[in-house]
């Protein structure tokens, strides 16, 4: 701490250069924060996916349906505690740009038991079970569209047209659910499968996929194998996997988001490393004679190296902390896509990773100039003006 004044004085030596370097680091870590939030959104709750939940879909593709009769057969398999189903509705609310939220026909009591992390008031759940046209919406979607309990929600069908003619299904919003965890998806729009199945033009008795709770997560692979063997060589063969693997596979249909974001961040941080490293290299070249004086009055080579690294880390910490703080504040304002992402927040784990990256950047940027300063010959350094 006794050299803090000297460190600050060196930062003020070339204010414009130091400011621009810090601003570049700020921009890099704001980008880091947004990419971390986007990556988390594309995981779609995989981090809180139940270890005791499996998903069974058609072996060929998730867009292929399965018979509803499979439900009872799956529940007979040893190790299965319960099973239910869901299907993709794929409708449009008002305009195509508003269709980026899941609309799923489900069995209310079974679905809520399967997903206890969905928090719905008791009276709203009871209203859902009483109302055939009833539906519930996640808090994020309800807030986005300004929905409230009692509203009638028209959804334009793109696949499942109603028997009444036209392509509009109208649902009564009887509840709004919240998530137990921050990662819980609160963008879903859930309505009753019995009402949907009786009133669609075609596809009666078919569902999209099965959701299965097992008794022991350690036996997940064995249960999944038994399920798929049960329906092998049938017209509707299945593929069963853990919920986490299913979510990851669904997200990977849009590309390996993790690798894409990692590649972007690697390029950004490599560029910032060059900028910060160049700043420190110039600072060392401009202070060769001063470093020579410091060595002459007793500063050891190790202390000189530590001094340069401290200066580099100070620049990185100022820029990094401001960048991470700014990213946290901006991300907290909400999803910039206005609802296209199911969740959007800066994960605390990534904040910690960001802080580690700040220190790593400071050390990496200052290491080479520090080694050069440490190796300076005192006499040669003092000769320079």
Descriptive account of the structure:
By secondary structure, this protein is an alpha+beta fold. Helices cover 51% and strands 16% of the residues. It is built from 14 helices and 12 strands. The strands form 3 sheets. Strands 4, 5, 6, 7, 8 and 9 form a 6-stranded mixed beta sheet that branches. The longest helix has 32 residues. The radius of gyration is 29 Å and the shape is elongated.
What is the CA-atom radius of gyration, in angstroms? 29 Å
- The total beta strand count reads 12
Coarse morphology: elongated
Helix content: 40-55%
**Cα distance, first to last residue?**
29 Å
β-sheet strand percentage: 15-25%
Q: Could you give a short account of the major beta sheet?
A: 6 strands, mixed
Which regions are unreliable across 5 or more consecutive residues at pLDDT < 50?
A: none
Mean pLDDT, nearest integer?
85
Could you give the order of the helices and strands?
Answer: HHEEHEEHEHEHEEEHEEHEHHHHHH
Number of helices: 14
Label the structural class. Answer: alpha+beta
């Amino acid at each position: 701490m006794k050299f803090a004044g000297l460190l600050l004085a060196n930062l003020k030596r070339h204010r414009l250069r130091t400011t621009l370097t810090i601003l570049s680091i700020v921009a890099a870590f704001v980008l880091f924060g947004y990419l971390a939030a986007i990556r988390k959104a594309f995981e779609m709750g995989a981090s809180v996916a139940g270890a005791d939940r499996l998903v069974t879909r058609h072996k060929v593709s998730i867009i292929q349906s399965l018979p509803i009769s499979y439900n009872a057969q799956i529940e007979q398999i040893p190790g299965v505690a319960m099973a239910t189903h869901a299907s993709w509705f794929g409708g449009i609310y008002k305009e195509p740009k508003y269709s980026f939220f899941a609309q799923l026909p489900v069995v209310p009591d079974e679905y809520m038991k399967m997903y206890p992390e969905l928090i719905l008031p008791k009276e709203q759940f009871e209203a859902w079970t009483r109302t055939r046209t009833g539906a519930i919406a996640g808090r994020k979607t309800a807030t986005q569209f300004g929905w409230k309990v009692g509203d009638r929600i028209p959804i334009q069908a793109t696949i499942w047209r109603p028997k009444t003619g036209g392509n509009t299904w109208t649902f009564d919003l009887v509840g709004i659910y919240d998530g137990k965890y921050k990662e819980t998806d609160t963008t879903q729009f859930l309505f009753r499968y019995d009402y949907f199945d009786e009133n669609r033009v075609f596809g009666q008795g078919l569902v999209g996929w099965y959701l299965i709770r097992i008794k022991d997560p350690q036996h997940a692979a064995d249960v999944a194998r038994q399920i798929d063997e049960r329906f092998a060589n049938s017209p509707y063969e299945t593929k069963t996997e853990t919920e986490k693997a299913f979510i990851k596979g669904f997200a990977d249909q849009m590309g390996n988001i993790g690798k894409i974001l990692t590649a972007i961040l690697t390029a950004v941080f490599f560029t910032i490393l060059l900028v910060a490293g160049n700043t420190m290299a110039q600072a060392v070249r401009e202070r060769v004679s001063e470093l020579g004086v410091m060595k002459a009055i007793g500063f050891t080579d190790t202390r000189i190296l530590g001094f340069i690294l401290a200066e580099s880390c100070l620049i990185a910490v100022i820029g990094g902390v401001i960048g991470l703080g700014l990213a946290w504040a901006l991300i907290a304002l909400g999803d910039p896509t206005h609802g296209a992402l199911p969740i959007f927040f800066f994960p605390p784990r990534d904040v910690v990773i960001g802080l580690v990256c700040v220190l790593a950047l400071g050390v990496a940027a200052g290491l080479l100039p520090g080694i050069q300063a440490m190796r300076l010959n005192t006499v040669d350094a003092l000769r320079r003006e």
